[in-house]
């Protein structure tokens, strides 16, 4: 959540942030005697990015920086949506995580996958928790 907010803030202030990044890149490139330039622009290009701008900073901001940030933000929204917090208690099924979750929260999370379970009866799942918990105590 914190990382996603930070990335969204970078996206909102993309002009200022990229200007600072590009300034550092130009300074580093000057140290190693490299000139930052844009690829040549065609009149009509359909198979790659073809942005009609005159300076490298704007070109790389539009063609690389903004699409990259948008992709990462979208991927984080997809992977870490609200459903993740609902199913996280299933982590309690791992023996080393028994103590972090109570049986009721695990059962509630398991009921999300009720249609996928062979036995949807919660008493079977509770019995399994009890057996696994006892085996875990014996192992300790």
UniProtKB/TrEMBL annotation:
Protein's UniProt name = Uncharacterized protein
Q: What organism does the record attribute this protein to?
A: Macrosiphum euphorbiae
